[in-house]
Amino acid sequence: MKISVAIDGPAGAGKSTIAKLVGKKYNLMYINTGAMYRAVGLKAKENNLSPEKVDEICSMISNMEMHFENDDLILNGENIQERITTPEISSIVSNYASIPEVRSRLVKLQQDMSNKFDVVMDGRDIGTVVLKDAKFKFYVTASPEERASRRFKELQERNIECSYDQILKDIIDRDYIDSNRATDPLRKADDAIEIDTTNLNIDGVVNIITEYIRKGL
Ligand code: DC
Questions:
Q1: Annotated binding residue at 12?
Q2: Among 17, 93, 111, 132, which is best to mutate for testing ligand 1, by the most ligand atoms less than 8 A from CB?
Q3: Which ligand 1 atom lies nearest to the CA of residue 37?
Q4: What is the whole-number distance in angstroms between the Cα of residue 123 and the centre of ligand 1?
Q5: How far apart are CA 192 and CA 194, in angstroms?
Q6: Which residue from 19, 33, 60, 63 has the fewest beta carbons nearer than 10 Å?
Q7: Are 213 and 26 in contact (CB under 8 A)?
Q8: CB under 6 Å to ligand 1: residues?
Q9: Was 123 annotated as part of a binding site?
Q10: Could you tell me the domains of the chain?
């Protein structure tokens, strides 16, 4: 039986760490859809394509071969994971992720991956759009302050210069853009299980999710 697990939620809620662990447990390929939108932001920036240049961005995407290896995004043969997780890319990515033509192309790529492999996929529209029929759907959230302090710690550990206040502001701005865009905004699917992680550690969340999956299999 094919397994698809959808994990949605706002920026910094811990989705990717959780999805990786759930993937290891059930031998699922982890598809980080945020990384794919970030790759579009990175390449658009390198090519000086502002978000209004929709046609050029779409033809750029048709030359982007993306797949995942060991949870990292490989773009045209290059591991770009480090380059797409900088504050600079975080601050521009929502403007590209809100373009309907960009979304329809990336959704198609994500659906192709889920048709080929057993997947755990995280993002904003997985349970509502990409994997609408997934048997296992989760919506993971946490307060903006908790999410900002997690991101701040992670960037400090990577020696990336940043300020907590700026990260909190970026998270609040991104929540707004992601939740209010016209196409496929961030929202909980009606049939998703909601988990507030503000006062839970990662193992606690992974246990809740794996218990649901174990019971459902
Ligand atoms: O999860 P993340 O922070 O890496 O996501 C980067 C951006 O991409 C964020 O602004 C939301 C957007 N995104 C989206 O619109 N749909 C997805 N399925 C995944 C991410």
A1: yes
A2: 93
A3: 8
A4: 6
A5: 6
A6: 63
A7: yes
A8: 11, 33-34, 37-38, 93-94, 97, 123-125, 174, 178
A9: no
A10: 4-210 (3.40.50.300)
Nearest-CA residue for atom 14 of ligand 1: 124
pLDDT in tens, 117-163: 999 999 999 999 999 999 999 999 999 999 999 999 999 999 999 99
Q: How far is the CA of 96 from the centre of ligand 1 (A)?
A: 10
Bridge partner residues of 139 (DSSP)? 8, 194
CB under 8 Å to 40, separation ≥6 — which residues? 57, 60, 61, 64, 93, 96, 97, 102, 106
**C-alpha to C-alpha distance for 210 and 134, rounded to whole angstroms:** 15
Residue 1 CA neighbour count, 13 Å, CB half: 8
Q: Is 11 annotated as a binding residue?
A: yes
15 known member of a binding site: yes
Q: Is the pTM of this model over 0.85?
A: yes
* pLDDT greater than 80 at residue 1: no
Contacts of residues 59-62 at CB distance under 8 Å and 24 or more positions apart, as own/partner, are 61/102, 61/105, 61/106, 62/105
